[in-house]
Amino acid sequence: MHGTLAISAILGLSAFASARPVNGPPGHGSGSSSSSGGQVDFKFPLDNGFPDVANPSKALTDIEEQAHGTLPNGTAPPPHTNSLNALAFIAFNELFEVVFFTELIYNVTNNLPGFDNIPNRDVVLSALTAVQAQEELHELNANGAFNKFTGQTVTPCEYVFPVDTFVDAIGLASTFTDVVLGTLPDIQTIFADNADNGLIRGVGGVIGQEGEQNGFYRELLGKIPSALPFLTGSAVDFAFNAINQGFVVPGSCDATLALLLTPASGTPLKEFGILNVLTTNITSDTDSEIDFSFETKTSGGQSFAKQGLYLTYINQQNVPFSVPLMKEQFQSDAVTFTASFPGQSQEMNGLTIAAITSTDGPFATPDDVANVTLFGPGMIEVN
């Protein structure tokens, strides 16, 4: 989990090209050589066999004890295809989170450079150990349901993480948890739209659990536990691209990506180009301008034109809005530009999701933005 990204007011999940990841610790996942300077990527399984854990089994019982609770034991009727596809995404996300916390626990336990001299170390380790197991149960629940109704399984990828200190790692955990907290209500909406009401409460339970996690991370970062009165909404497409662009080793899980991008039926996820947020230390103390770039060679098959593009912001539960691109500089495979950020006038605290869109709306929901996104997401964290 070593890298060169420092914690700041912004943690752009797609701007990870310069990271120097380290392999998964011995006995907690295995390392495999990558193409970037001899670096090593984390891959499963864990010591307890996860994600291949039978139900029932001693391994599952051990995970439940570590998690301070059990897998849900209720049943639901066969879900609609779009609901099944949403369960596949949840499993994809949870696999990534399990790896992240496994490496973080290893680094703290072994006092690796940047992860030593942590205040209240035993309390922190106890909390992270529970979180790791809780994420394992989230994954087993979603993937188990997906397999039960489709006969298919979301298999793990290999992963890299661009942080080299404990503070960096907690900041990154807080950001991706913010994205999860915005995305799970989108999944609840998918369930409701398809009359799969029996799945909604379980996801609601995970939302509350993830909120408890993020309050802990924010306190560790010296912030107030609750960022906003209404947390920033997101869409499954944005969460998928954040993980796939920022953490998944290319080519390490093509079968799983195919389940998400080209499902047998239902609505596929969309693959976007990369949007980088270049400005750091963004605040809501004043209205300002932010520098961005997007890589036209990573447009996910989308066409690119120099005209008719907008930067669209999603913040809190407010209506998404667009601003024009300014000071564009066009290169052969990238565009840099500046855009206004009305941090003070619109109280843009917490997480803001930025995207390059082909129209300026009007937008009612984050899904409306995702439907016309070409590049993104860019993640901006304020306070």
Task: Tell me the β content.
Answer: 15-25%
Mean pLDDT: 88
Helicity range: 25-40%
Number of helices: 8
Distance between the termini: 24 Å
Helix and strand content put the structural class at alpha+beta
Rounded Rg: 20 Å
Order of helices and strands: EEHHHHHHHEEEEEEEHE
- The count of β-strands is 10
- Sheet of most strands: 4 strands, antiparallel
Parts with pLDDT < 50 across at least 5 consecutive residues: 2-28, 30-39
What number of structural domains do the residues give?
2
Shape: globular
- Biggest sheet: strands side by side, in what order? 3-4-8-7
Task: Describe the structure in your own words.
- Helix content is 37%, strand content 16%.
- With 383 residues, it is α+β, with helices and mostly antiparallel strands.
- The protein folds into two domains: 30-261, no CATH class; 275-382, Sandwich (Immunoglobulin-like), CATH 2.60.40.10.
- The strands form three sheets. Strands 3-4-8-7 form a four-stranded antiparallel β-sheet, with no helix packed on it. It has a four-stranded antiparallel β-sheet with strand order 6-5-9-10.
Please supply descriptive tags for the structure shown above.
383 residues; alpha+beta; Immunoglobulin-like; 4-stranded antiparallel beta sheet; 8 helices; disordered N terminus
